């Protein structure tokens, strides 16, 4: 089965406190989103990349990559899940129901081809799919107010990254059925709610999401390390 990439890029980046959405901030000579899309395109794993962009976004049409023949633009939605569903719909008639879709945040520009291929190789024979994830190095506490009520067994807790890899038809149906549910903060949670148990694949710790101002310098550092 073929693989397609979906990139939600319609957020405003509130926590970044910048003058524009974080996907358009400069990083190592390009914008964040150009790094993200280049890494997906250059991996050679995908037929095309569907990108969800806000209808009010003045920055996207200015980028050359918006005209790339393997880049498809879709309108962004209110929440991340709405943006992902919109981008999936833009692949209608192109992607087969059983093709794989890898959903990857525009705000994760340090993704490596190594992780993309590891994920696809690990999950391509799985009936559901799964996500890149990281274990926690810190001891984890369950807290009520500011009181610790338990220490959580770390072997059962993983941090969800992207890409999140699922079958095209199954993911579209899951996101449609869970539309508007605020508990759906990633693709896996939509499938979990329907009773599926997606897999985890251990990813690289440099696949960070740019969320707060200090993350840009960290992304720059990781890119220099990768080069
Ligand atoms: N995203 C999206 N559509 C939305 C909200 C988010 O496509 N309605 C995208 C963002 O552009 C980002 C990814 O989802 O690439 C991960 O979301 P997050 O890191 O939360 O980005 P923002 O929502 O932009 O940031 P913030 O929550 O700080 O406002
Ligand atoms: Mg957000």
From TrEMBL:
<dbReference type="InterPro" id="IPR018294">
    <property type="entry name" value="ISPD_synthase_CS"/>
</dbReference>
<feature type="site" description="Positions MEP for the nucleophilic attack">
    <location>
        <position position="154"/>
    </location>
</feature>
<dbReference type="Pfam" id="PF01128">
    <property type="entry name" value="IspD"/>
</dbReference>
<dbReference type="GO" id="GO:0019288">
    <property type="term" value="P:isopentenyl diphosphate biosynthetic process, methylerythritol 4-phosphate pathway"/>
</dbReference>
<dbReference type="InterPro" id="IPR034683">
    <property type="entry name" value="IspD/TarI"/>
</dbReference>
<dbReference type="InterPro" id="IPR050088">
    <property type="entry name" value="IspD/TarI_cytidylyltransf_bact"/>
</dbReference>
<dbReference type="InterPro" id="IPR001228">
    <property type="entry name" value="IspD"/>
</dbReference>
<comment type="function">
    <text>Catalyzes the formation of 4-diphosphocytidyl-2-C-methyl-D-erythritol from CTP and 2-C-methyl-D-erythritol 4-phosphate (MEP).</text>
</comment>
<keyword id="KW-0808">Transferase</keyword>
<dbReference type="InterPro" id="IPR029044">
    <property type="entry name" value="Nucleotide-diphossugar_trans"/>
</dbReference>
<comment type="similarity">
    <text>Belongs to the IspD/TarI cytidylyltransferase family. IspD subfamily.</text>
</comment>
<keyword id="KW-0548">Nucleotidyltransferase</keyword>
<feature type="site" description="Transition state stabilizer">
    <location>
        <position position="22"/>
    </location>
</feature>
<feature type="site" description="Transition state stabilizer">
    <location>
        <position position="15"/>
    </location>
</feature>
<feature type="site" description="Positions MEP for the nucleophilic attack">
    <location>
        <position position="209"/>
    </location>
</feature>
<keyword id="KW-0414">Isoprene biosynthesis</keyword>
<dbReference type="GO" id="GO:0050518">
    <property type="term" value="F:2-C-methyl-D-erythritol 4-phosphate cytidylyltransferase activity"/>
</dbReference>
<protein>
    <recommendedName>
        <fullName>2-C-methyl-D-erythritol 4-phosphate cytidylyltransferase</fullName>
        <ecNumber>2.7.7.60</ecNumber>
    </recommendedName>
</protein>
<comment type="pathway">
    <text>Isoprenoid biosynthesis; isopentenyl diphosphate biosynthesis via DXP pathway; isopentenyl diphosphate from 1-deoxy-D-xylulose 5-phosphate: step 2/6.</text>
</comment>
């Amino acid at each position: 089965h073929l693989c397609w990439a979906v990139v939600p890029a319609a957020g405003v980046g509130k926590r970044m406190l910048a003058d524009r959405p974080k996907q358009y901030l400069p990083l190592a000579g390009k914008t964040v989103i150009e790094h993200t899309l280049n890494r997906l395109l250059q991996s050679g794993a995908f037929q095309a990349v569907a990108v969800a962009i806000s209808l009010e976004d003045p920055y996207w049409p200015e980028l050359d990559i918006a005209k790339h023949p393997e880049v498809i633009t879709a309108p962004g939605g209110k929440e991340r899940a709405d943006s992902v569903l919109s981008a999936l719909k833009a692949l209608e008639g192109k992607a087969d129901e059983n093709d794989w879709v890898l959903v990857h945040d525009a705000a994760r520009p340090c993704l490596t081809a190594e992780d993309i291929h590891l994920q696809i190789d690990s999950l391509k024979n799985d009936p559901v799919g799964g996500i890149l994830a990281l274990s926690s190095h810190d001891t984890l506490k369950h807290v009520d107010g500011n009181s610790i009520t338990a220490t959580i067994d770390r072997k059962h807790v993983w941090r969800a990254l992207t890409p999140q890899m699922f079958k095209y038809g199954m993911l579209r149906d899951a996101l449609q059925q869970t539309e508007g549910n605020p508990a759906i903060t990633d693709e896996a949670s939509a499938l979990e709610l329907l009773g599926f148990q997606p897999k985890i694949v251990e990813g690289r710790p440099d696949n960070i999401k740019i969320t707060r101002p200090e993350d840009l310098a960290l992304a720059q550092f990781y890119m220099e390390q990768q080069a």
